[in-house]
Design brief:
By secondary structure, the protein is an alpha+beta fold. The chain folds into two domains: 6-144 and 287-295, Diaminopimelate Epimerase, Chain A, domain 1 (Roll), CATH 3.10.310; 149-280, Diaminopimelate Epimerase, Chain A, domain 1, CATH 3.10.310. Helices cover 15% and strands 41% of the residues. The chain has helices spanning 31-38, 63-71, 92-104, 245-259, and strands at 6-12, 15-22, 48-53, 76-82, 116-119, 125-133, 137-146, 149-150, 156-159, 167-173, 177-182, 203-205, 213-223, 226-235, 239-241, 263-268, 271-277, 282-287, 289-295. It has a 19-stranded mixed beta sheet that branches. Strand 5 and strand 6 (125-133) form a beta hairpin. The protein is globular. GO terms for molecular function: diaminopimelate epimerase activity.
């Protein structure tokens, strides 16, 4: 196998990953290896695989991306693969998980050595370690997720095969594509968030050429300057996950557009995450956990 003999399991609010460090750039995984390791029955199990390598050791990274990493102080790159073996531009929860892993491996020098500059296919992300922060958990990180781009509000019709009803979705680009669907908004006729069956991929019309993540969200209230919401997500390449960092950011962007509220505590099946939105960028704050080291046979 073109992967090391020992890998690790990590998660960020239940969005789980097989992770490993590749400082010498010799362990780039094949799609078959990713699918095997992420298989929940025959492998380790995960929503994706993250290889931490130097930017010039990742075969699909361009010269311009390498130059961007160098210009922005990112010596390390998050080579992220979906569970189906496909490449992914970005994973917000993955940035937190791999940064905690980097700390534990001595690659990031612990809280005093952060912010940690991490290269991704969607640009360099900057992470700060905040320690324990209720109600988000222990080993909490704040990620500067960068710029967002939103399409026309409610421009997409979204259905779930086998589920009665339809919602209207809004496109948000967070380095990867999202359609955010409020379930209690306007003419939406979908069931409540907790009653949705996301075992199959939602159908989006008009169709996006390369697919998309789809977030279903319910606004639960606003207390002062902070909104509360509940979200579930179906991610392209892996199905429903307990959390999606870029999807949480996309959801915050759409909720801000609809309500004028900039700050959101969003509950997903894996925990609570804070999303702070401005006119130019998004911050994502949540916890990460390194679960175990696994020695492969």
């Amino acid at each position: 196998m073109s992967i090391p003999s020992a890998v690790f399991k990590a998660h960020a609010t239940g969005n789980d990953f097989v992770v490993y460090a590749d400082p010498d750039g010799v362990y780039e995984p094949t799609a078959d290896e990713v699918r095997f390791l992420c298989d929940r029955h025959f492998g380790i199990g995960g929503d994706g695989l993250i290889r931490l390598a130097h930017p010039d050791a990742v075969s699909d990274v361009t010269g311009a991306q390498i130059a961007d990493c160098r210009a922005n102080g990112a010596d390390w790159f998050m080579d992220y693969r979906n569970a189906d073996g496909s490449l992914a531009e970005m994973c917000g929860n993955g940035t937190r998980a791999i940064t905690l892993f980097a700390q534990r491996q001595g690659i990031a020098d612990g809280p005093g050595g952060l912010p940690f500059h991490l290269g991704t296919r969607a640009g360099v992300k900057v992470l700060a370690a905040l320690g324990e922060v209720p109600p988000y958990g222990a080993d909490v990180f704040r990620v500067e997720m960068g710029a967002w781009r939103m399409g026309r509000v409610n421009a997409y019709a979204v259905r779930i095969p086998g589920v009665i009803g339809e919602g209207r979705g809004t496109f948000v680009d967070m380095g990867n594509p999202h359609i955010v669907v409020p379930v209690k908004d306007g003419g939406a006729t979908l069931p409540d968030v907790g009653e949705l069956d996301l075992a199959v991929a939602p159908e989006v019309s008009p169709r996006l050429e390369h697919g998309q993540n789809v977030e279903f969200v319910r606004v639960d209230g606003v207390e002062g300057e902070v909104g509360r919401a509940t979200m579930r997500v179906h991610e392209r390449g892996c199905g429903e996950t307990l959390s999606c960092g870029t999807g949480l950011c996309a959801t915050g962007v759409v909720l801000r557009a609809k309500t004028g509220v900039d700050h959101w505590d969003i509950t997903v099946r894996g925990g609570i995450v804070r999303v702070d939105v401005t006119d130019t960028d998004v911050r994502l704050t949540g916890s990460a956990v390194v679960v175990a080291r696994i020695d492969l046979r």
